[in-house]
Specification:
Blueprint: H1 2-30, H2 32-35, H3 38-61, H4 70-96, H5 102-126
Helix pairs in contact: 1-3, 1-5, 3-4, 4-5
Length: 137
Amino acid sequence: MVLRQLTLFFIAGLAAFLTDFGAYMVLTRNVALLQSFYLLVSIFTATLGLTVSYLMNQLLAFHASGMPSLRRYKRFFFVYVLGIVWQNLLLYWFVSTQHLPDAVAKVLAILTVGLFWNFLLAKHWVFRYTNSSITQP
């Protein structure tokens, strides 16, 4: 059960990652001015990814009852905004002190924060998932 849920969380996260990273690469590689503001661009694109992740986790991973709710989205947003802060601190650290290319640093930061912080808080606090909350198709 947990493996299935983690797999679905990963699929939602992959969609969010593709949204975030894809938009980040398009904006920073095609708009010269935005290359200097890579952290601001990263915050913007991470927010796009956050919304994709919320909707997919609502429907797939945690089988939350009813329509997506503003209350749940606020919790999810809070968790992910803190995750975005952590992610961008890691991005800055990887680029400025470890001298990694920003694209590599972005991937490492997303994976680190997403697998630990986001999954556990989404499961236990945002969606308040329990085995009894599963609706079988």
